[in-house]
Amino acid sequence: MTVHNIRHGDASDGALSEAVGGRLSRVDGPAKITGAAKYAVEQRLEGLAYAVLVESTIASGKVRAIDTTAAEAAPGVLQVLTPDTIISLRTASDWFGTPPPDKPYCPLARDITFSGQHVAAVVAETFEQAVAAAALVKVSYDETPSIVDLSDAKAGDGIPIDAMTKEWGDAQAAFASAPVRICAAYNTPREYQAPMEPHGLIARWEDDQLTVWEPSQWLDGMARTYAEWFGVPFENVRLVSPYIGGGFGSKALALSHGAVAACAARMLGRPVRLVMTRPQTFTGYGGRAATRQTVAIGADANGKIQSIVHRGVNETSIDGMWVEPLGSVTSIMYATPTFSSKQNVVRVNSVVPGAMRAPGENPSAFGIESAIDELAYEVGIDPLEIRLRNYAEQDPHAKKAWSTRQLREAFATGAERFGWFRRTPEPRSMRDGNQLIGWGVAAGTYPVRRAYGEAIVRILADGSVEVESSSIDMGQGTYTILAQTAAETVGVRADDVVVKLGDSRFPRAGVTGGSRLAGVMTGAVYKAATSALDQLVGLAISDPRSPFHALQANTLVVANGRIGSPRGDGPDVSIAELLKSVGRDHIEATGDTMPANSTSDDRYKNYTTIAMALPHTEGDYSRHSWCAHFIEVRVDEDFGTVRVSRVVSALDSGRLYNPKLAESQWKGGIIMGIGQALLEEGIMDRRHGRIVNNNLADYLVPTNADIPDIEVISVGIPDLHSSVLGGKGVGELAIVGVAPAIANAVFHATGKRIRDLPITLEKLI
Amino acid sequence: MKDFSYLRAASVDAALQAAALPGAMLLAGGTTLIDLAKCGVTEPETLVDITHLKGLNSIEVGERGATIGALARMGHVADHGDIKSRFPAVSEALWQAASAQIRNMATIGGNLMQRTRCPYFRDPANFPACNKREPGSGCSAIGGVTRGHAVLGTSNACIAMYPGDLAVALVAFDAVVHLGLRQVPVDDFFLLPGTTPNREHAIEPGEMITAIEIPGSASARRSTYLKIRDRQSYEFAAASAAVGVEFEADGRTIRDLRVALGGVATKPWRARAAEDALKGKVLEPDAVRAASLLAVEGAVDHGANHYKIELAPRVVARAILKLGETA
Amino acid sequence: MTKIHVQLDINGDHHELQLEPRVTLLDALRDRLGLTGTKKGCDHGQCGACTVHVDGERVLACLTLAAQVEGRTVTTIEGLAREGEMHPVQAAFLEQDAFQCGYCTPGQIMSAVACIREGHAGSDEEIREYMAGNLCRCGAYPHIVAAVRQAALEVQS
Fold first, then answer.
1. For chain C, what is the domain count?
2. Catalytic: A732?
3. Is residue C82 in a domain?
């Protein structure tokens, strides 16, 4: 392993394609492009029954009665579950592992707190029968007034979240006395993860053993929840999730539809499949909370910031708590002598919002990165220059050195490739016929979240290597980078490594979220593989049956699946031959990154909760990924339509384990950001408290035709404060800053500052 | 989806006989019907599959015009060389509709029967009130989310927008719908909602669309379909215009002009006032923009759809001016 | 409702099924025949994940009744490779990294094969428009365009 002399970030990383840092194609690719990859609900099981959910049509009130007569009489129906007939569960602990209240949990609701809440379920012999019978369930309600959203007069100011308060200096006073002041409100709507694979599962009980095939970003965490619901030992629950059809934060937790399916399977004594309809995916779990922020910046005439005062609000549900940390980017992006950020959450009749790609950082950046652009125009300074003038040389909040921060390099590289110097600053100064052209810039960042993982590496009799982990691959490339890690560490070809993921029977892993998985798991596999290699070399040197025994060497070299001496003299045998000669059918090593002397309780807590995640400011450093987006838009002057025509983004994710796959993730984040900026918004019928565009024809995500070529450039360097192998986060980073870069470009094109996403055509005509 | 029986018609007559049974509906490409059956909006008892009928999918284009069989598929018509050259607006309306897959399924006849995308119409479980679905039950859209609703041709009973593209081009060029023996101009085929929004087409029980006929004309030959939407593709129109123009020999004076609007009205909307204002005039930007405003005469918004009243005339003007550039 | 007898020709294999008439081609493939390569993303013709070929043309299996395709030839992603040899579009998708989670991918590939066959892969702009009926939430679009461009050159040469 040669982590210390790796060149930074360019696409090749100086590595062979099969080594860490190389551009190996996805090892799970062949299965995905031939249709052979079986996603969770695609398992064929004997006796499978099909469940369909019935959801509330009011946003607030109580279920008065559920008439199941017609549904029960419908052909093929096996059972109709209601709050009265479903078996009782126990309340499970939350994802911090907080001990739950000792009260029963019912995944079907009697008390309605949002439209689209599960109230009943029908199980039938076929999917078609279950769908038809579900439509026959008649639910009557006693309706009460609902709080529709943040703008509802009944919503109020909400609940202050003291933990979100960040303050230094007297920001209010400094703002009041600043020579230049800007202050504006920035709003983001409800947005939805909308993975292409809808949520769903198959649940099967065998005695008190539960197997759940379910797309999951966190097998061990979800297994814990199922175990606690049903009061069975953790070990009795097996989660299987070999492929995940997109998650973006939405598939990390066991949710009530999963409880319904598992209850149905238990009650029926048969495996049950339940898949949400696409409309149900808009209310069956939470998307990104709607947010509002006020950003006030005080500066001197040269644009040097003297004060930032920030206030934020996000929606949460009536009985759940979601905090979208709106001050997360605000507090670290720019140097400021004074700062104040506070946040409230407001309860509305909605499903509890959830994690969606860069929760917190994403809307936070929309606020501060729009505001800094407004300041640039206020003082008449180039938007890129003002960012450099206020460059934070250390973490302004934690007052610690950055572990690495290649943001200046990102600005410089991105600007050069984009041709930023050719920009004319005046709004509406660039056009092509009817198209107003605008160029915008914005920065983004995401903290390096760290936790611990474990893995098994086996060297098998045929010389191949097997890696097992309960972590997952939802498209980030886990299968591939772990194969590269094991291949390089042991000294075999990546083709000879089989990576097995997505089964909670494998060595454990924490949540795949917050862009932590790659750093955690490459570290664990590196350790396990190193240990396996040590065993292999140890055997070769010391076992009397080994052809190397007589050499009395201190060490041996393993490369391309063959073992030899460092000098090249002496025997040269394959791993398979060596294992055969010493009479071993495999070598196995477990590796983890847990602190020494960790107890089994520590391990359970680490893998099934997020309580042991390390703060990104732990120790002497503040660890973050960084990026700068340069974006060109074309706005039709008559129609107000905005199309993104060019994107150049320079990104610092530290060392890249596989640049080919990292580039794909970055582009994916940028594309989701384009959707956020221009298209995506849950639209509320205020009379019904219901999102009416709950489908993929009306909740618009970008199509291929909306996306230009995108250039991404790695400017990262290995950051060994952030991970064992030097990488920082990749998956969430690139969406952060895209929406403000587009809004800033739209301002440059049109002279109109749009502070409410999405930037739809009626806002510009 | 409620269960239904399925049968394949062996002939047009057999199809019409079967379709006359209570609860029976004709099934062509299925892109509207199967979708709405899954939504619980339509609950057929019998589907009569006509997609295997022979002889109804021809595309014949000559000097006098085009005759397109009811079962010709949207994608094929869009790519047909003579349609592209003699009726560019028809081809453009088709290829900008839906997606390539849907255009390979959807038939021309079925496309004329496409129903509104009003979210209230499409969700009976949550919004029982819909005069289009259930006459007399009320309109959930009025007072609700109206960003995609019509501003022209609405009534107190219904403001649902007609979502199609092809028929906008057809109404501009005076196409005729063949219902077996009977022929109906496209403009008359689509009905205004009035007090009976449940009745959308001038087609009687026992009839089926067998073909559409588009008269050839100089304005059809110089025509375009301009579709504006939030997303670049795979979306219904925020506003669209089918426009055709014929110039006098001077190449500047407008002899004939056809203008129809999509995405803004309860049916494909012919804008004759805008046409009349420009006929005989020299094509000139200010005059075109002024005349285009007449295309939305009488428009009434319901709040969030107000932008359509601003947008539609600009779409019309751009389309006319674009055709002028190629003169 | 009584089931009907439906004969399906899928990837060159003959299948006989007893089905309710309301069963879609998509559910017949996935739930009855175990051909789960064809994906269900929306079930309403809004995402393209269920794209298959019927008589060589790309259509959506979610809005097609299984009974409707009796007598027609159906090709799914499982039937695209010939004698173990990947179709050039499949190979290009792997090389260009034109997917991440993989869920929209079979539909993208079936759509891309048809897009090239239709002659709609003449430019990047045309590819984008004619591939717009296949949503990809991971955002692999630029790489999908690159893969279709590459495969179109190979197929045509």
1. 2
2. yes
3. no
Question: What b/e string do you get for A458-496 counting C-beta neighbours within 10 Å, with b at 16 or more?
Answer: bbbeebbbbbbbbbbbbbbbbbbbbbbbbbbbbbbbbeb
Whole-number pLDDT of residue C1? 60
Q: B242 — phi, psi (to 5°)?
A: -100, 125
pLDDT of residue A198: 98
**Residue pLDDT, tens place only, A237-251:** 999 999 999 999 999
DSSP percent split of chain C into helix, strand, coil, nearest 5: 40, 20, 40
CA distance to partner chain C, nearest, from residue A196 (Å): 5
Nearest CA in chain A to C146: A709
| CA gap C91, C23 in Å, rounded | 33
Quick: pLDDT tens for A559-598: 999 999 988 888 999 999 999 999 999 999 999 999 989 9
In Å, how far is A523's CA from the nearest CA of chain C? 23
CATH number of the domain residue C52 falls in:
3.10.20.30
Identify whether residues C71 and C8 lie together within a single domain.
yes
C10 and C52 assigned to the same domain: yes
C-alpha A531 chain-centroid distance: 31
Kind and range of the H or E run holding A451: none
- Beta-strand pair B65-69/B59-61: antiparallel
Span A406-433, mean pLDDT? 98
Tell me the count of B-C CB pairs closer than 8 A.
90
Q: Span B5-49: which CATH code?
A: 3.30.43
Catalytic residue among A228, A324, A632, A732: A732
Residue C23 backbone phi and psi in degrees, to 5 = -70, 125
Distance, in Å, from the CA atom of A378 to the CA atom of A425, rounded to the nearest integer, reads 12
Q: Scanning every residue of chain B, which has its alpha carbon at the shortest distance from the alpha carbon of A695?
A: B119
Single-letter code of the amino acid located at C57: E
The domain in which residue C106 lies consists of 88-156
Q: Which amino acid is at A708?
A: P
Q: What is the pLDDT of residue A492?
A: 97
CATH 3.30.43 residue ranges for chain B:
5-49
Q: Above 50 in pLDDT, residue A6?
A: no
pLDDT at site A15: 63
Instruction: Measure the CA–CA gap between A496 and A454, rounded to whole angstroms.
Output: 21
Q: Which domains does chain A have, with CATH numbers?
A: 3-37+451-608 (3.30.365.10), 40-145+196-282 (3.90.1170.50), 400-448+617-763 (3.30.365.10)
Amino acid at residue number A124: A
Give B218-325's CATH code, choosing from 3.40.190.10, 3.30.390.50, 3.50.50.60, 2.30.110.10: 3.30.390.50
The full 3-state SS of A42-103, as one line of letters, equals HCCCCCCEEEEEEECCCCCEEEEEEECHHHHHCCCEEEEECCCCCCCEECCCCCCCCCCCCC
Predicted interface score ipTM higher than 0.90: yes
pLDDT at A1: 33
Q: Judge whether A470 and A220 are in contact, CB under 8 Å.
A: yes
